[in-house]
């Protein structure tokens, strides 16, 4: 593996990668031409300076993962990465404590007028009486966004004796209750908060959240803290509120354009400006680097996707549980791919049993990657590729599986001329098994070289198959049979056989040609599985 670290990181970050003695780690101080270094790189690690755009990715044909040491990924073209099957990871939460501590520090700073006090004393002025402040105790703190940082703020604000209200449509009420936060709607946040702090990402819904209308319904004298994204605030509206006294004070650590060279906030004495210091602590930078290195390493070694911004993420525990089914999904997709008569138009993926209760996005992507079976398609970009090709995907989940299996995955492929279907499960934790094909029960291993044979249900077919394989010196590892007269896919009087064989690709081709000459055999497909 080759890891290109394009910007400076801590020694502890390097140490994580260097635990793998066979890995080549190229650090920023050794890079003279980044494009050339990426030609054979498996991973790219950046902070905020390097622009990992589509043009740069053109020079990285082997790249599997881009790691961003931090939260914002504005410098990474996630769409271009997804199309190339590259995971984009960031490190949310690693700096949560640092940002939360800065948030509380800025609140205390506003409450006690610390900037004015220190400036006056530096000028030899003892202005104790004019600098009387207020306490945070018993004040209402409105927290917009109850992710990791928002919750860390809540825990610390409780120690100050503040009343906590919060808005986050994506947090479970039990989590809010456990942290002493009362969930309310966004207008209530605006109306009741003495202090208002923002901890949400930038989306079309959150951009300009603090604007003329929202400020108009706030308490007179409200104090606003923004350590999230500068775009959350309409600057002109906040400046007007600060100057009119409607907003008692603001503390801003982030801005629409950084570094801040010109600003309408300059010269306003009730606004505190800091140069994006939220995660700028020794401890946070160390934690961010270590976390990112561990995430990138886990993906390169075990395909565990954590904190990805362009594909669903799983914890290591979640991944361990569903990994066998991700593998099964890919095998089932390969097995059934190209089995439909005509061009594939849509597919259905059904999950039943325990499988249906967990995260299935990567399982879906693995199915798609298997069906498409293209070297340029993997479980990262499979959904995007399917969408580009006009293939519709429908998913269905049932908590209870039939037939006694703990979890069953079923795949149905549709074309204008017909359909093909199959179901499968994992036995003993690591054995992928086919359970049915086109509605006919037939248990077979989903490994190695398989022959899927449709034949007329007449005497002598099994023997003839065995004879043909024997004549070509091909060993049979497993022979599974199924029959049905009610299947919609298989005409009445036909049967199925799935034969696992041991043979070279050339010999497989000869065997398939010979079997197709047998009168009772309607069709033969050879499928090569890992």
Task: Please outline what is shown here.
It is built from 17 helices and 22 strands. It has 530 residues and is of the alpha/beta class.
What is the element layout, followed by pairings?
Elements: E1 2-5, H1 11-18, E2 24-26, H2 34-37, E3 43-46, H3 54-57, E4 65-68, H4 78-83, E5 87-89, H5 96-111, H6 114-122, E6 140-144, H7 148-159, E7 163-167, H8 173-178, E8 182-183, H9 186-192, E9 195-198, H10 212-216, E10 222-226, H11 235-244, E11 247-252, E12 271-273, H12 282-302, H13 316-336, E13 344-353, H14 361-372, H15 382-388, E14 392-398, E15 407-415, E16 418-427, E17 431-437, E18 440-445, E19 449-456, H16 461-471, E20 475-483, E21 494-502, H17 505-515, E22 521-528
Parallel strand pairs: 1-2, 1-3, 3-4, 4-5, 6-7, 6-9, 7-8, 9-10, 10-11, 11-12, 13-14
Antiparallel strand pairs: 13-15, 15-16, 16-17, 17-18, 19-21, 19-22, 20-21
Helix pairs in contact: 1-12, 5-7, 13-14
Radius of gyration: 30 Å
Extract low-pLDDT stretches.
none
Mean pLDDT: 91
Give the structural class.
alpha/beta
The percent range for strand residues is 15-25%
Question: Helical content, roughly?
Answer: 25-40%
How many structural domains are formed by the residues?
A: 3
**CA-CA gap between termini:** 22 Å
